[in-house]
Amino acid sequence: MTNQNVVVPDTKSGISLPMVRLSGSSIFPATAQKPPTAPGTGENLEINGGGGAAKINSWVDSMRASSPTHMKSSSQSLSQHQQQITLPSALDNFDQIMEASRGKQIVMFLDYDGTLSPIVDDPDRAFMSKKMRTTVRRLATCFPTAIVSGRCRDKVYKFVRLAELYYAGSHGMDIKGPEKGSKYTKGTEPVICQPASEFLPMIDEVFKELVAKTKLTPGAKVENNKFCVSVHFRCVEEKKWSEVAEAVKSVLNKYPKLRLSQGRKVLEIRPTIKWDKGKALEFLLESLGFANCTDVFPIYIGDDRTDEDAFKVLKEREQGFGILVSKVAKDTNASYSLQEPTQVMDFLQRLVDWKKLAFQESRM
Ligand SMILES: O=P(O)(O)OC[C@H]1O[C@H](O[C@H]2O[C@H](CO)[C@@H](O)[C@H](O)[C@H]2O)[C@H](O)[C@@H](O)[C@@H]1O
């Protein structure tokens, strides 16, 4: 990424988001300057600061609790304390959602794995179907649309292959708008934001160390997501999970500026900056000119713990809705649910049909 790529987003409302490059590499909104470091949200597991074996056990327990074979008993015991609610279906309540969006600009945010593509064993083969791609392409002709993923931006782009979208990779730490600008923003240059640039060499180092430490554990896979690293457990025998968690802990103990979060059978190592999918959503809304607007209706669809940061932002802003993709009840800040990617596709297609009908009616 070069200096030439740093753009001041030209917003519809006239509110611009001045960007500054710090230390020759980081880019932050000038008002916010450098994001403060944070211990992480409730979703994030604290790594540095001790805990030893107890900490490892708690990660492994948490991984077990979220795996299908343990899901039933875990959700039963959790529900006694946490009031997990089965969310209403976004498909069954489609008209209600559309009614709430009346007179507002819908903006779409879509997670990738488990939302647009089904969860598979090999992260390199998590392809989305042609039908899903066509649907997302149609969606983007109707509403500004962003993909928000834990994967590195280039990789998620290779899966989605739609140049007209916004992409926020590395859990929102690498944001880029459409190459030729967008019909939704005034500028012709793409929006760009990389608040964790200074962590690149450290992440690279950690990636190499984790590859070396886990290479003898069959099934373990370490993925370099540019501003974060994923350590996959999905294909590791359950009795070896502690071994992998131990390797992660031993590496992370050396890096107090990194923290850990957890996804679906994956441990994710990321910078301690206060930036997540929720911040990415806010940044994108601001770039699109909706920073202080009441007439915007963001819809965020995601399946993972890291998507909760975005659901929470929507709840706090009292704007739009979060939709959780899950077959089971979970403790969540989302308002509606869809069971799996095929239902996500149906929901997106209904949005497209609804928009077309609304357009036709407005011309009558
Ligand atoms: O934010 P997302 O787009 O949902 O990305 C989160 C992680 O997704 C990928 O891992 C998950 O999907 C894999 C493929 O289906 C699956 O094998 C793995 O168990 C899941 O955790 C991706 O590989 C990670 O890098 C992302 O962070």
TrEMBL record:
Which class of enzymes does this protein belong to? hydrolase
Report any one BP term from Gene Ontology. Answer: trehalose biosynthetic process
Q: In which pathway does it act?
A: Glycan biosynthesis; trehalose biosynthesis
Required cofactor(s): a divalent metal cation
Select a single GO molecular function from the record's annotations and give it.
trehalose-phosphatase activity
Q: Name one Pfam family in it.
A: Trehalose_PPase
Please give the superkingdom of this protein's source: Eukaryota
EC number, as in UniProt: 3.1.3.12
**Keyword annotations for this protein?**
Hydrolase, Stress response
Chemical reaction(s) catalysed:
alpha,alpha-trehalose 6-phosphate + H2O = alpha,alpha-trehalose + phosphate
Q: Which InterPro entries match?
A: HAD-like_sf, HAD-SF_hydro_IIB, HAD_sf, OTSB-like, Trehalose_PPase
Role summary: Removes the phosphate from trehalose 6-phosphate to produce free trehalose. Trehalose accumulation in plant may improve abiotic stress tolerance.
What family does this chain come from, according to its entry? Belongs to the trehalose phosphatase family.
What is the recorded name of this protein? Trehalose 6-phosphate phosphatase
